[in-house]
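Re: beginner question about structure tokens

> Can someone show what the tokenized structure looks like for a real chain? I only ever see the sequence side.

Sure, here's an example I had lying around. Input first:
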Amino acid sequence: FQKGYMSRKNTSTWGRQFCPAHPNVPLVEDYRAGDTVCPECGLVVGDRVIDVGSEWRTFADDTGDDPSRVGAAENPLLSGDLTTSIQSTGNNYEMQRLSNRILSSGNDRALVQAFSEIRLMANRLHASQAIVDRANTLFKNMTDTKALRGRSTEANCAACLYIACNQEGATRTFKEICAVCTVSKKQIGKSFKLILRALNTSVEIIKTGDFMSRFCSNLELEHKAQIIATAVARQAVDLDIVAGKVPVTVAAAAIYFTCLAMDIDKSAKEIGDVAGVAETTIKQTFRAMYPSRDKLFPPDFVPKVSLDSITGTK
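And the corresponding structure tokens:
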């Protein structure tokens, strides 16, 4: 439409815009120019029209995400959208101070920092998004109960991540959690007990099978070795041979025993580095298993090395 040069005086009544010369003609909005125009005479009745549509055109053969969707998804655990922050550069220090004051309202700022900490630790563990979401929910619930007030935020995040891994079936040891944060196992353990008590929740008892697949995969062992090691560890527990030993130690010793029986070149040190168990601890547990060697392996297992000749010096 060609813009007219008529006066815009008296072009609205009770908030409704109209053309003085053609009051009954529906106006047309020209979003490209930002004007409201009369189609009969070209009078620009109003300007500064805001285009509320998509800022990109989306075609049917486009691949990937729809560019018309901008901004991060809203986090249901927060009371507001805190995904945008203002960085202090140049003369915008006052804007950053105002932004930080807004973020400081309530517990949202602490939650955002905690969620970032959980995300960072989860990435180091190669944990899934489901684990991250569960850990975030646990932390939010604990914040609401105020049971962890005064304790280290990092320890609380680590404890929530430990519980989330267990509940999602991707069990991790306390030692593995400690390796991705800067707090001690004792601090994480205290937060862990408080969370279980405050939320009236529980975690499944850790078993040797929870680690076997991951350890064997990291050691690049064949699937048959994993099956044999799992059977050895289960039998050792059932026969009460390894009473008082933690499951991760039993799993490491079972893998070590299996490698010796199948003549696989894996030392106790290599297995210990993957499992996070000391070499001497693995060999001590192996020596506890050795007297019952005929009962530990499956009946159809044929060792490549005679079980009686195994010394465990590797």
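Each token stands for a local structural state, so reading them left to right follows the chain. DSSP finds twelve helices and five strands in the chain.
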